[in-house]
Design brief:
Layout lengths: L4 H5 L9 H11 L2 H32 L5 H11 L8 H10 L7 H7 L3 H11 L4 H9 L4 H12 L1 H16 L3 H6 L8 H8 L7 H21 L1 H9 L4
Helix pairs in contact: 2-13, 3-6, 3-7, 3-10, 3-12, 7-10, 10-13, 10-14, 12-13
InterPro entries: MetI-like (IPR000515), MetI-like_sf (IPR035906)
Subcellular location: Cell membrane
Main location: membrane
Length: about 240
């Protein structure tokens, strides 16, 4: 990032004096700030809505009795084995018929129902004490109140761990936005950084500026929630 493109190509490993030039060129050549804002907006929306949906689904699998829930859960797990490449064409046709191509809803809707995170919340919901659940019902709380006032606060470490997974997945999402988004003004940061590295004579100095910018939010989120992440992976009920 501090060297010229030629120096980077030659494998120079020492610091250079091209940092200001590379940063200026990167922001002048492409709208990195707009792309950064687009990625941040999508990541926050997907993480917020996704955590709510996945946690409700995982909670329901454990708390509410149903004869068909095990079959449904097996189907959910089986969906994790389907490679994304096999889903691209059906997803493209579906969102095309819905008129949602080049719309952020085409990015948000497939991401908010993660089978992995539903499984993650389901496994952690087993540690939720059943005595607390019964006591809350005896005190007159309905299921919505139990979930939002008791389950969510007690499982905050699980939410932190799942939030890191979902934020990083949304932030680093490249293939589907590349297909679904067609307007430069709606491009996310991975798409813009990939464009910096494309062409016959890519400028690696500018590319590294974009890579550093795209890496910083995930580092900040991880280290901010690191303690809660470890607690959420090892058991989170307080």
């Amino acid at each position: 990032m501090t060297n010229s493109s030629a120096d980077i190509t030659m494998g120079k490993l020492t610091f250079g004096n091209k940092l200001a030039e590379n940063v200026t060129n990167a922001f002048n050549y492409s709208n990195l700030w707009r792309a950064f804002g687009n990625s941040l907006l999508l990541a926050v929306i997907v993480t917020g809505i996704g955590l709510l949906i996945c946690s409700i689904a995982g909670y329901a699998f454990v708390v509410f009795p149903s004869r068909g829930k095990e079959i449904l859960f097996l189907a959910l797990i089986a969906s994790m084995m389907v490679p994304f490449a096999a889903k691209i064409i059906p997803m493209f046709r579906m969102f095309s018929k819905m008129g949602l191509l080049n719309n952020y809803l085409a990015i948000i809707l497939p991401a908010i129902g993660s089978p992995f995170l539903i499984f993650f919340f389901k496994q952690n919901a087993y540690s939720f004490p059943k005595d607390t659940l019964e006591a809350a019902r005896m005190d007159g709380l309905n299921e919505y109140q139990i979930f939002f006032k008791i389950f969510m606060p007690m499982m905050k470490s699980t939410y932190a761990a799942a939030g890191i997974f979902m934020f990083m997945a949304s932030w680093n999402n490249y293939m589907w936005p590349l297909i679904a988004l067609q307007s430069d003004t709606k491009f996310t940061l991975p798409l813009v950084v990939a464009n910096l590295a494309s062409g016959f004579t890519p400028d690696y100095g500018m590319t590294m500026v974009g890579i550093v910018l795209s890496t910083l939010p995930t580092i900040i989120v991880f280290f901010t929630l690191q303690k809660s992440f470890v607690e959420g992976m090892t058991g989170s009920v307080k």
